[in-house]
Design brief:
Elements lengths: L12 E7 L1 E2 L11 E2 L6 H15 L8 E8 L7 H14 L7 E6 L6 H9 L4 E7 L3 H6 L6 H13 L5 E7 L6 H12 L5 E6 L7 H4 L7 H17 L3 E4 L2 E3 L6 H7 L3 E6 L3 E5 L6 E6 L3 H6 L3 H4 E6 L5 H9 L6 E2 L1 H7 L7 H9 L9 E2 L3 H5 L1 H6 L20
Parallel strand pairs: 1-4, 1-11, 2-3, 4-5, 5-6, 6-7, 7-8
Antiparallel strand pairs: 8-10, 9-10, 12-13, 13-14, 15-16
Helix pairs in contact: 1-2, 2-3, 6-8
């Protein structure tokens, strides 16, 4: 039990659902995804998900959900019937209001018009499509199962199904990609008129095929120029950059991801899913993860067997973990949210903040914790200032009223 934290109120609570199967593992992907068997055991897996959620409910009694995100893998491999049973179970177990943002990830290679109309009918109201590129040569180099024609058709299918809140994923810095090719790729994606874009650079992650057999990637300077060109083009097209890699039209920010970045809480159910939960009674912030392999997750007989890891966030690590999320947001967060969502005084981190302001890495605004444009470009350097060894002793917030 941690005696160092005092929560005046608990943060918003999201729900992440992980569906781990995909048609084929991409060579750059380090997510917990597995090539699907001939027949995905969707009925058994939904049973396991609902059992997982029921076991976690005592940890969050009385708290309502602010968002639901169904990720993977490729969730669009699951039938609408299976996802309807999942969401019906979520509604039965939690306080989920009708207007809550419910996002599902989809692969353009698994889009079916009738199925996506059914997804919309069961209450999924936001779709995130992994387009990645509209250049067939680039898609082939990335090991994707779709081509540019499939991607365009996927957007058309989504729109006809009633999805007007639509994110597209786009990558740049692809193998042998030129600056002009990256510009053309973005222009083609903008023409599809998404309401949200996740625009990020290809990186070689450990334990991936690309890490073992690296492709020829553009030079560092070229990748930097690609990023700058993307920012300029998206701004001109009416998109606002609100997070390091996220761009949205007015009113179309992703509520679920905003909760992550603002150090909110979230339940995680499914194979390899992670959660973060705050507890008013003990003052703990706990991070939990479930069994990674689908077979082991499905075979787990109870909550104890399903849980792979649980750890309590040390007080000294709080500043770094909060800032790692909050400083990704271009607007940052209100300063008061630090004490509200960590249960600790901000005082031990004042020196790091002041030094960062003086160096032009953080904005000079006592009401907000936010990086400058330079700070966003040098985010890793900025975050080093909030490492535990860089700060002094931490102390709890003095409670203004009892926590209930």
């Amino acid at each position: 039990m941690s005696k160092g934290r005092t929560f005046r109120e608990l943060p918003p609570l999201g729900l992440y659902v992980h569906l781990p199967w995909c048609v084929r593992k991409c060579p750059y992907c380090d997510f917990n995804s597995h090539e699907a068997p001939e027949e995905v055991p969707e009925a058994a897996y939904v049973d396991a998900l609902l059992g997982d959620l029921a076991d976690d409910m005592p940890l969050v009694w009385g708290r309502s959900l602010s968002s639901v995100f169904i990720g993977g893998g490729t969730p669009s491999l699951f039938s609408a019937e299976a996802l309807d049973r999942l969401l019906s179970g979520v509604r039965a177990l939690t306080a989920l209001s009708p207007g809550t943002e419910i996002t599902m990830e989809a692969n353009p290679g698994t889009m079916d018009a009738s199925r996506f109309s059914e997804y919309r009918a069961i209450g999924i109201n936001r779709l995130s499509i992994g387009v990645q590129s509209l250049d067939d040569r680039a898609l082939q180099s990335l090991g994707r199962i779709h081509d540019a024609k499939d991607a365009r058709r996927a957007v058309d299918v989504a729109r006809k199904a009633g999805f007007d809140n639509l994110n597209l994923d786009l990558m740049y810095g692809l193998p042998d990609q030129s600056l002009d090719a990256a510009r053309d790729d973005l222009a083609a994606v903008i023409e599809l008129e998404p309401t949200h874009l996740s625009c990020y650079e290809l990186t070689l992650e450990p334990n991936t095929r690309f890490a073992a057999f690296p492709p020829d990637l553009p030079a560092d300077d070229t990748r930097f120029d690609m990023q700058a060109a993307h920012f300029d083009a998206l701004s001109a097209a009416g998109f606002e950059r609100y997070e390091v890699s996220a761009f949205a039209r007015d009113g179309q920010r992703c509520e679920h991801n905003l909760n992550y970045w603002a150090f909110g809480d979230y339940l995680g159910i499914g194979a390899g899913a992670h959660g973060k939960l705050s507890f008013a009674d003990s003052g703990d912030i706990r991070r939990l993860s479930k069994q990674r392999h689908p077979k082991r997750y499905l075979e787990a007989a109870n909550a104890s067997a399903r849980l792979a890891q649980e750890r309590t966030l040390p007080l000294a690590d709080t500043g770094l973990e909060f800032m790692m999320n909050a400083l990704r947001l271009t607007d940052g967060v209100p300063s008061g949210w630090f004490e509200q969502r960590t249960g600790l005084s901000l005082a031990p981190w004042h020196e790091a903040i002041q030094r960062s302001v003086e160096d032009g890495l953080m904005q000079k605004d006592p009401q907000r914790l936010a990086a400058t444009d330079r700070g966003l470009d040098l985010l890793n350097t900025l975050l080093e200032r909030f490492m535990p060894e860089a700060t002094g002793p931490v102390r709890p917030v003095f409670p203004l009223k009892p926590v209930t």
